[in-house]
Amino acid sequence: MEQLIDTLKSQIITTLNLEDMSIDDIDTDAPLFGEDGLGLDSIDILELIVLLERNYGIRLANPAEGKEVFKSIRTLAQYVEKNRKK
Amino acid sequence: MAYVLSTNIVSPLGFTTEDNINALYEGKSSLQSYVGLWHLPETFVASLFSDEQRAEVQRSGYTLFESLCIESAQRALTDTDFDISAPDVLLILSTTKANAPQGLGTTAYRHPGEAAQRIAKALGITTHPIVVCNACISGVNAQILAERMLRTSEYRYAIIIGADVQSDFIVSGFQSLKSVSTRPCRPFDIERNGLNLGECAATIILTTAQPCSWSIESGAIRNDAIHITNPSPQGEGCLQAINAALTPEQRVTLSCINVHGTATMYNDQMESKAMQRAGLGEIPAFGIKGYYGHTMGAAGVLESIITLQAVERGKIPATRGYAERGVSGKIHISGSEQTISGHSFLKVISGFGGCNAAVYYTKQDSDIRPGCNPHVPKFHTARRIKLSSQEGKTLTALYRETSANYPKYYKMDGLSKLAFIAAEMLGADFDAVALFNRTSSIASDLKHAQLIANKSEFYPSPSVFIYTLPNITTGEIAIRHAMHGETSFYILPTKDMQTMLQIITATLIDPSITRLLTGWVDYQDETHWEADMFLAEKE
Predict the structure, then answer these.
(1) Three-class DSSP category at A24
(2) Top-level CATH class of B2-363?
(3) CA distance B519 to chain A (A)
(4) What is the ipTM for the molecules in this complex?
(5) Per-residue pLDDT for B225 more than 60?
(6) What is the mean pLDDT of chain B?
(7) pLDDT higher than 90, residue A38
(8) Which long-range contacts (CB under 8 A, 24 or more apart) does B312-316 make?
C-alpha cells in the first residue's frame, strides 16, 4: 500500500506538472481539491481519470463518481488497489 | 451600426438560409448517432455533412474547410452587386480549428491565416483577411469586430464567414473533457448531460455603404476570469456582456434572445442565472443546438442568422430537446414554437477561456437613419516588451526573472506561458486583452494529434486539448489579473502591423477600455517563439 501511495504521488506530480513538488510534500490524507490541500481543479480531476485508465485499466465514466475516490491520496490508493486491472 | 446586406447557411440541413429556417420550423434535426466513426472508441451524437454533401461542396485543390467557406460566401454574394475586389471589402473568418487536423505536422498544412488568404483569393477579395479564434464566441466576436471596423476604418463591406469541420481531433478532445453526450442534446432540460458537436459554414455580409432593413447596433465581450473551462456559476461575464451591449432603450425593444444553450450542466445553468440577473427572464428565449449541435466557430454566425429570420417571421423555433426545466435561473425557454412581436433581438454566447459575448440586432421600421458618425479612438503605446527564442533563454528561466509565484504557470502550454511572462513583465494594469499570432495553438495541436494517433493506446489528455484553443492564453491572463473586460484572439497570415493596429483601434471603441494589453505572441515549439506585446493606452 505504501509503495502504491508513493507511486501515485509521483505519477500525479508528473501528470499535473506540479513543479517544485516532491512526494514528501504531498500529505497522504490531505484533500486533493480545494484550498486546503493540493488545490487541484476540475481539469486536473479529468486528467487523473485518464491516469487511472492508462496506468491501472480503471474506467471512471462519470466524473461525479470520482468525488469519493479523489478525496485524498489514501482514498485514491485504496480505490486503485481494489479495482486495478493492470 | 452596420447593415446586414446578405446571409447564407451551408449546413447538413440545407445550403441556403431559407432552407435552414424552414427545416427548423418543420422540426428537422441533423443530429445522428455515430458508432466507431474515425475509429473513436466511444459512441457520439453529432451533426455532420453526408458524403454526398461533402462531394457537392468539395473543390479541387482546397480542403473541405476552405471549400465550405467559399461555398457559403459565394452563395451569400449571389444577390449582391458591390465590387468584391475593391479595397473597402474586408474578410473576417471565424473558426476555432480551421484546417486542423488535416495536414497537421506536414509541410502541406495551412495555418488558419493561410486558409483565410486562399478563401479570400478564391472569392476575389484583395485585402488582408482576419481570423477570429476566440473559442465558442468567435462568431459573435467576428460580428462585433466587423461592426467596429466598419466604423473605424476605410472598409465599407465586411464578409464574415463562420465555419468549422468535425474530426476525431475535436470529438476526442471534447470527450476527454466529459462534455459530449451519447444522446441528442437537451438544452436547459433536467436530463441534459452534455453537448453534441456539429459542422457548418455560415456567412453574414455587413455594410455601411447602402441601407438595408436589418442592422447590428452594438455588441460587447467580457471575461469571467475564474477558470479556463468552467463558466462563472452566477453568469457574471455573460451578464456584463449583456449590460454593455444593450442600452436601457434597446433592452425594452427585445423580441427574443437566442442563447448558447449547449446542454452542458454548467453552461445552461450559468445562462439562466445571467438572464435572470439581467432582468431578461421574461423575454422569449431559444437555443438551436438540438438541430445543429455545437458548430463552434460557425455557431455565433449561424445562430444570429437563424434568429434574424425567426424574428422576421414572428415566431421562434422550439428549443429542441427541452422538456422539463433543469436550471434554477429565470429564463423563458420552451419546447414548442413561440410567437413573438417586435423587431429586435439579442444573441448571447459563451466559451472556453472564460469569454462571453452579446450582440444586438434591430430592424429599421420606417426611416433609414443616416450613416453612422465615425468615431475613431486614438491611442499610444504605454509600454512594450519583446521576447524571442533567439535570445537563447528558456521560458522557465524568463518566468523566474519575473516576481510571479504562480504554480499554475507550469500547467500552461508554451503559448500561454509566453504570453503570461510578457504580461507579467509589462506589469501595469489593463482592462482588456487582444492578442495576435500566426500559428494559432500549433504546439498543442501537434501534441493532441500525437496522443490520439494510436487507437490502441488512446488516451487524449483534457489538459492538452484545452490549449488547442489559442484564446485560452487570454483567459489565463484574465484569471491571473482578475480582469473581467474584453478578451479576444486573432490570427493573421503574417505579423502585419497595419491590420493589428486597425483591430486595436476598433477594439478601443468599447468605452470601458482605457488600457488594452495587446500585441503578437506566437509559439511553435521550444526553440521557435516570439512575443512582441504592449499596452495600448486610449487617449
Answers:
(1) helix
(2) alpha beta
(3) 28
(4) 0.87
(5) yes
(6) 96
(7) no
(8) B312/B363, B313/B21, B314/B339, B314/B340, B314/B341, B315/B25, B315/B339, B315/B340, B316/B256, B316/B284, B316/B286, B316/B340
Rounded to two decimals, the pTM is 0.96
CATH fold of B379-491+508-538: Peroxisomal Thiolase; Chain A, domain 1 (3.40.47)
Element (H, E) at B133: none
Q: Which of B193, B229, B411, B467 to mutate to test the interface with A (most CBs of A within 10 A)?
A: B411
Judging by beta carbons within 10 Å of its beta carbon (0-12, 13-18, 19+), is residue B404 exposed, middle or buried?
A: middle
**Distance separating alpha carbons of residues B219 and B207, to the nearest angstrom:** 16
Say if the Cβ atoms of B466 and A43 lie within 8 Å.
yes
- What cell was used for B65? 474547410
Q: What's residue B438's pLDDT?
A: 98
Strand-pairing partners, residue B379, are: B538
Q: How far is CA B26 from the centre of its chain?
A: 28
DSSP assignments along B428-496, one per residue: S--SEEEEEESSTTHHHHHHHHHHTT-GGG----HHHHGGGSTTHHHHHHHHHTT--S-EEEEE-SS--
Q: How many CB atoms lie within 10 A of CB B508?
A: 25
Peptide linkage before B101 cis (omega within 30 of 0): yes
Contacts of B411 in chain A (CB under 8 A): 16-17
**Which residues in chain B are closer than 8 Å to A39, comparing Cβ atoms?**
407
Cross-chain Cβ contact A46/B463 below 8 Å: yes
Q: Could you say which of A19, A42, A46 has the minimum Cβ distance to residue B410?
A: A19
pLDDT at B133 over 80: yes
**How distant is the Cα of A36 from the closest Cα of chain B, in angstroms?**
15
B151 grid coordinates: 466604423
Stretch among A60-74, B65-79, B128-142, B299-313 having the lowest mean pLDDT: A60-74
B230: chain A residues, CB-CB within 8 Å: 42
What are the residue ranges of CATH 3.40.47.10 in chain B? 2-363, 379-491+508-538
Q: Give me the residues paired with residue B284 across strands.
A: B332
- Model pLDDT, residue A63: 67
